[in-house]
């Protein structure tokens, strides 16, 4: 049993608390949050003590730290936890500022840090990756990533989000890197404000298409919108030399209703915490593996690379030209 | 080019007229119908002469006769055409009366007669049969045939139809024999009147389930209703020793609409002439093959065997007991 | 928090232990099993004490008893637990012997007893039921239940299983009753031994079709085989006056591979503990509701009624005639 | 009955000959081809006379001319036929040279000319358009067009094809204009040579992604490859303010094979003449409507606009920058 501490008792922190508490190889040994009531409530739910960051870092019995606090603290807390010799589970993104993220290389490049791009742990995307890896369809040539939110966030969220590319597409940039198996050399992005004019007034876009290209010419399209109107749309198609692999959406049930209008399937799962519930469990399982000695499958360098692509896309969409990340 | 004559210019006759007229190896050389105006209109459409049955039978240049007249004439016209040395394309059913149909054995057993069970020529069911024959799933063990009409016929039709089992399920009995590869030894049928009480008053049922069993124990379920409420539902599932093959319905288009209620596919094709358009073309093509010398894939004996199963099912549903056909 | 005890630490007992232990309103307060090592291992896993049946029944703090022991003890333990004033969660079947099951009416008819037909709690079948109940497709008329195991059990299991109808189809009889909304008046069953001759030598069948009929003429077909060859096949189609609702299988992932042979989807979930994992959680949640005062959604009388249908089907298949349950 | 002449007895000419000959409102009155044997064979097949272009243009009884000759003659023959007062059915593309195509405006802008972008007449894409038009999903915002050939053409074809964007994507540019309902203001294209190095040596690409943007910010991605490895992949997804409409591929049959590896569907239709057989029929039907007085649904200006987009994409892919068409 590895003792782990959780920093951040918000929405995503509560998910990680549950998964850590129920994990057979982990014990949730401390919950830290500046809002005392949040920490206390979550601690009560899982019979875990409330703690402070300093206590956690000073406690040699705590082997791992889960950083699920606000984005602007990810980098700092990760550096401090790694400095204290802990394994780190750091929520995405590593930071919103590329320069600052790159500046942490000295502290984090060699850390045992899992950067929590949860989609790498989704069973459907893992199954897609497995088909690519086992040669079922030959060598990958291009990729279509569709990643649409069901409904737009409030403008107050958009204002501090870092923009669509850093906030939303950052997951897709990581998926592209993971699946293409080659670094990106060129980024074109086109963004529009079609959903909510308020988002445009804040200088952001709500609808975007990004094209990535690798050195050998592999191509990837990322399609994003803040509002699909039909649920949380999360799909990938990987085109290869002998065929194609697709991971489709997850529906709320397998029920279909047939009547004179046709056959209607159930809704897409609408909420990311439902869609990726198993992914969150699997990434916590991987954190347990890291505490057992495994190397992180996705770490600091991946967080920086995805952020660099997000910054390149932001720039490309603004300038209307190709950008090299 | 083989000259063929068509007897019957009704709905199904018009389909066969078109397919014969457009067939590269057939020439539509005569159209016969007691209703002169019907014959004349169809003859005009395909630039074919109107004729009489006697002329057709006496004309040595006419090699084949398509019997698409009313059910009670199928047997008589087929016997006369066969007697005149013609190849015969006889619409289903061979007759409504099993004794009478069996009585024609002397005249028809060795005739070049194609009994037009069109579903054997449907591309989807042929593809299913091909998968069974090529060993993709091993040896067949059981069968599920779903065969539902979109909406009930008028009571006037039901009154002369011979009942659900002879009128509607007769196709399914033929499919069962074709796919099971073994004769049926036992028939259980359960029928209810759930759709239209008028059908019940006529002594018929509108909803039925029939279970067939072969000597080796293979099982087949036939599900029928006169009114599906969602289109013309024509499906088969064949269960075998290493898997299952399914032929699904044909939709009006591949379009799906996604909105907050879910994903809605298009309607099932609703009308049998649309659903089986290609089947009708392929069975006419097979008739051309027969005129070229091929043996009929489905003939007089199959027509009698399907009728015997329909009679057994009718009896079983009435008596509530197992019947041997 | 309601304290509950678990009787039986076998495969299904371990599932219930986990779900009870993790349930926010339940506390797993005792584990009872004649095999001490089994009880101890499970108790250790969930930090629960090992106990004896007598201790459990005598302990007024224990409000509920989960009977997950061997089938022949279900009835006895349920009667004793109910007699001690406990709420009872009784695994299916209530018993293999219909007379004995009926004989427990005095003790159990009014007990707070949840008979654990897990499929009623499956999210897909619940979604299907909801569509029937909300009138999306009108009034139910007929039902197709497909329920195939992936691979046959060993003959040693078959020998004590009570036969296909009591062991396997019992679930389907319960589903039929639940969805048809009317009691069954007539049962026809046809069974064959096509999968494993050893099963036949034991006097059982491995492939069956059962037709049920209600007083108003509603029809239900249950299709069973002990070996599908393609996974755990669990589907329902409900035909109604204005359409049809279908609950389809659950696949291992949403991945599809497209190559020159076509598009291949992933496997069906193969193991019942995977397919029904959520159903087991939901039925435990319902047990918590019962402990809070709710009436059981499925109880003693349902267990007896399903067993009566299984006995009728067994008889019908043997005699080749219709049986009234 | 309108008399029509066909110019060009090659592969696509033969399709149009059949559809014209079988059309109830058209009579195929002349077949013209510089290769006499081709003209004669096709004329024989449909009992139509061989003719010359001059005869056709001079014959006042011929109301329509179908231009299905080689691409470099489309413009010239269309101008001559229009000049002779004929209605023109002109195969795509209008020309490979944008300047030349624009130069024909004086002659063709007001001609009764159907530019034969067959996909506008495909039943699936028409159904998708109908859903967009009837408001099922609100206002269109973006579009994903996937258009992949099964296997690459020989290099000799590629050499004279005008390049992937003019030869292959030209259809998709037309679809984008048709469905977006707004002209394109900006074109980004990225092309790679991943399939056949010989295509690269000829200065062309075999894999491309093109992003189009309208004045109001609507976005369209076109995905093309010369070799899918899994058939002729022709799909469209239209994203709108309240949902999404998708037109999926057409399979060779509805058959699915289930075995221990999963469920395998049939192949995609592989050949464009199969996939678009009905589209070719429907566009001939529209030509008959034009001869009856209807305005062409797609004409000269559409041919020029699609060509302008193809030229812009070719340029964009070469220069790596955004191009305004």
From TrEMBL, chains A, B, C, D:
Keyword Oxidoreductase tagged: yes
Tagged with keyword Oxidoreductase: yes
InterPro entries (UniProt xref): Gfo/Idh/MocA-like_OxRdtase_N, GFO_IDH_MocA-like_dom, Myo_inos_IolG, NAD(P)-bd_dom_sf
Pfam families hit by this protein: GFO_IDH_MocA, GFO_IDH_MocA_C3
Classification via Gene3D superfamilies: Dihydrodipicolinate Reductase, domain 2, NAD(P)-binding Rossmann-like Domain
GO cellular component: cytoplasm
Start and end residues of each GFO/IDH/MocA-like oxidoreductase domain: 125-246
All copies of domain Gfo/Idh/MocA-like oxidoreductase N-terminal, residue ranges: 3-110
The entry's keywords: Oxidoreductase
Entry's EC annotation: 1.1.1.18
Protein's UniProt name: Inositol 2-dehydrogenase
Name of the gene encoding the protein in the UniProt record: iolG
């Amino acid at each position: 049993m590895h003792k782990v501490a959780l920093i951040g008792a918000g929405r995503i922190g509560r998910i990680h608390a549950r998964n850590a508490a129920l994990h057979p190889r982990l014990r949730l040994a401390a919950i830290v949050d500046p809002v005392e009531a949040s920490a206390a409530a979550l601690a009560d739910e899982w019979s875990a003590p409330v703690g402070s960051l300093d206590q956690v870092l000073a406690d040699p019995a705590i082997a791992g730290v889960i950083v699920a606090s606000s984005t602007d603290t990810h980098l700092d807390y990760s550096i401090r936890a790694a400095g204290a010799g802990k394994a780190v589970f750091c929520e995405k993104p590593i930071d919103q500022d590329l320069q600052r993220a790159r500046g942490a290389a000295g502290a984090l490049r060699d850390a045992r840090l899992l950067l929590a791009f949860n989609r790498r742990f989704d069973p459907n995307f893992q199954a897609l990756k497995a088909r690519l890896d086992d040669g079922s369809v030959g060598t990958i040539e291009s990729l279509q990533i569709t990643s649409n939110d069901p409904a737009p966030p409030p403008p107050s969220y958009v204002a501090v989000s870092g923009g669509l590319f850093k906030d939303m597409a950052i997951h897709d940039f990581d998926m592209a890197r993971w699946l293409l198996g080659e670094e990106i050399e060129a980024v074109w992005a086109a963004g529009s404000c079609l959903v909510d004019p308020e988002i445009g007034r804040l200088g952001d876009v709500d609808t975007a298409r990004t094209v990535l290209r690798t050195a050998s010419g592999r191509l990837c399209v990322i399609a994003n919108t803040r509002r699909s109107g039909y649920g949380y749309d999360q799909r990938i198609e990987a085109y290869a030399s002998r065929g194609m692999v697709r991971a489709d959406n997850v529906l709320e049930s397998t029920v279909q209703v047939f009547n004179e209008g046709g056959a209607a399937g159930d809704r897409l799962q609408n909420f990311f915490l439902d869609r990726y519930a198993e992914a969150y469990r699997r990434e916590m399982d991987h954190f347990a593996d890291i505490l057992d000695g495994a190397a992180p499958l996705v770490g600091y360098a991946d967080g920086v690379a995805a952020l660099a692509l997000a910054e390149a896309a932001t720039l490309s969409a603004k300038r209307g030209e190709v950008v090299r990340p």
